[in-house]
């Protein structure tokens, strides 16, 4: 099962996503962190999120790129117990956050990858993680409403993030938009 949780900065989407995962019946809960904390602000944000997760039973896996590489770690931690029963997979992965992942993949190793290549890479990784053995919850940002004019690099990043969000929403079983702390389930067209 794939779920997309989407919202603006400080909208409450992370808190809702963690609560959503904690309310699930999954035996094993993983937090797949994508932030590559290089400055003090980023490090403070990581610490805030760790503190919010404290005591919730998450195993944290950090992958700022190549998120599909978390799958062997999950299999190893779960001791290969990926059996499913009538209630579905025993493991759930909360991927936080897509906007970081897109930036990390696009501006990787001192190179600038095209928006199309970035989208293709991320969607391939997401499809690898989204399989019958685990449930995947993806958190992403709405950064499209500010009306500012940006340079070409930023426009390409926004294009890639928009395409990734759109495709994940299309693939998802459930989509929630969090607005001022209130999750609104989006109805998907049949």
Domains (count):
1
Query: How many beta-strand segments?
Result: 7
CATH class, anyone?
Alpha Beta
CATH architecture name:
3-Layer(aba) Sandwich
Q: Stretches where pLDDT falls below 50 for ≥5 residues?
A: none
**Morphology call:** globular
CATH topology, which one? Rossmann fold
- Overall mean pLDDT stands at 90
Q: Give the helices and strands as they follow along the chain.
A: EHEHEHEHHEHEE
Structural class: alpha/beta
Q: Find the CATH superfamily.
A: P-loop containing nucleotide triphosphate hydrolases
The share of residues in helices is 40-55%
Number of helices: 6
Biggest sheet: strand arrangement: 3-2-4-5-1-6-7
Tell me the fraction of residues in β-strands, as a range: 15-25%
Distance linking N and C termini = 17 Å
Largest sheet, strands/sense/barrel = 7 strands, mixed
Instruction: Please tell me how large the radius of gyration is.
Output: 16 Å
